[in-house]
Amino acid sequence: MITIAIANQKGGVGKTTTAINIATAMAATGWKTLLIDLDPQGNASTGMGVRAEERTTSSYDLLVDGLPVGECTVASSIPGLDIIPATQDLSGAEVELVSIEDRTDRLRQALDGYKDHDVCFIDCPPSLGLLTLNALSAADTLLVPLQCEFFALEGLSQLLQTVERVQQRFNPDLGIIGVALTMFDRRNRLTDQVADDVRDCLGELVFQSVIPRNVRLSEAPSHGLPALVYDHSCAGSRAYMALARELIGRLPEQRKAA
Known about the structure:
This protein has 258 residues and is α/β, with parallel strands linked by helices. The protein has a single domain (2-248), classed as CATH 3.40.50.300. Helix content is 43%, strand content 14%. The chain has helices at 15-28, 43-47, 59-65, 69-72, 93-98, 106-111, 130-138, 150-169, 189-202, 215-219, 227-230, 235-250, and strands at residues 2-6, 33-37, 74-75, 81-84, 119-123, 141-147, 175-182.
């Protein structure tokens, strides 16, 4: 199983929307997909239609209590897509993990040797605390959603520095599979300028597929559905399908047979 963390310490850049829809797109193309909600807000769980009463076990139990992955997994309404939901208990996990010796390695230990899925996406919180460090330590690679605005560029430089530190201390094999430009508004000239600056800086690391600002992407979570199910023909859904095709093209060759 290849593990992909979806992270950016800046909030509001489309991490959860990207996690939900890229996982759905991968499942739709035949990959047995696992989505881990590691954000205490639990938005990915809500966006996938997992009700509070269905979250009897969660990513908190996986990290803190050491429950096996299979016992924490909930089947979604999407064929081939399962989720480990988040509950409010996760907000206290950072405090509880501080006293544990292997506190940055809990998720990697949980996923080590797990093979029931082809690919796993981890939706990270908008911070660089222990939850995100666990995700980066466990991940094979990192997908970075980047909102097309000026402040996002500052956040990106901080994230790249964090990736370097994680490589040095916890996970030397961690790479960045790509940067996805989100909330792209062609009516705004600044959006084009930011996109150009990011491509000049990072080159081919930036995905060609761009996620536009789209009302249907915003509406879908309130119905407990990914946008690809809520309205598969909207511009946002088409963009995420294109992004998934690009992502598959960047995965190691031996994984594509899935």
